[in-house]
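Dear support,

I submitted the protein below through the web form. The confirmation email said the job was done, but the results page showed an empty box. After a refresh the structure appeared. I'm attaching both so you can tell me whether what I see now is the final result or a partial one.
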Amino acid sequence: MGATILDGKATLAAIKTELTARVQALAEHGVRPGLGTVLVGDDPGSTWYVNAKHKDCAEIGVASIRRDLPAGTSQAQVEAVVAELNADEACTAFLVQQPTGLDEFAILSAVDPVKDVDGLHPTNLGSLVLGRPAPLPCTPTGIIELLRRYDVPIAGADVVVVGRGLTVGRPLGLMLSRRSENATVTLCHTGTTDLAAHVRRADIVVAAAGSPSLITADMVKPGAAVLDAGVSRVDGKIAGDVAPDVVDVAGYLSPNPGGVGPMTRAMLLSNVVEAAERQLAARS
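What the results page shows now:
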């Protein structure tokens, strides 16, 4: 029969509809969420991604605040723009698009944690470890949301996450093992001995190692959910971590592109709206 496709594009569209209603409710209280972006240089991939974020914002009624800086902008100049957005009341949440070619940890640390739309500020990641409320990383949140919307069982599931990166693998392992998810998580990577043996036991596999076709059909338990969050390039095209033949074995499969990527965008929008809702609640 083949796998049920976990359609991130369709889910993004549904979430946009839901968020539009929430933005309209905020407008009734005189609040309009605003997303800020800081883009350094003219990298085509970064430019496309920032443009997509602002297009999404326009579709749901969120204001756009762009700061596009030329290549060669100094560390101090970028941090000055960060300070400006921290102080701008119209900017509900913002991000500095990576890569910048600068000290990105210092730039990220300069962002007001409350306005950290990516959920990657050291304070917010620390809150995740401690189980405290804080903005959450967009890609892991999107993966969990996609599983939930397709009724893939998470509680009690054996999950293998392949990839130990800061934006996906490490935070996803923490999130899936929370009481609200109750999965049992094994965090693997490209240095794991006998990776295939770990993956074959999994009810849910999340591939986020950036290694093309790392996960093959013979590694997947029949009926498992497989989510492809890998990003690399082969012959100039985006390539995921999951081989095409996995569709014949998996019970659920997220395409790449069109699966996890749109969900990352959806959760970024959600983080902006939630930040505005928290601001309104604090004023009440």
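Response: this is the final, complete result; the empty box was a page-load delay. The longest strand covers residues 34-40.
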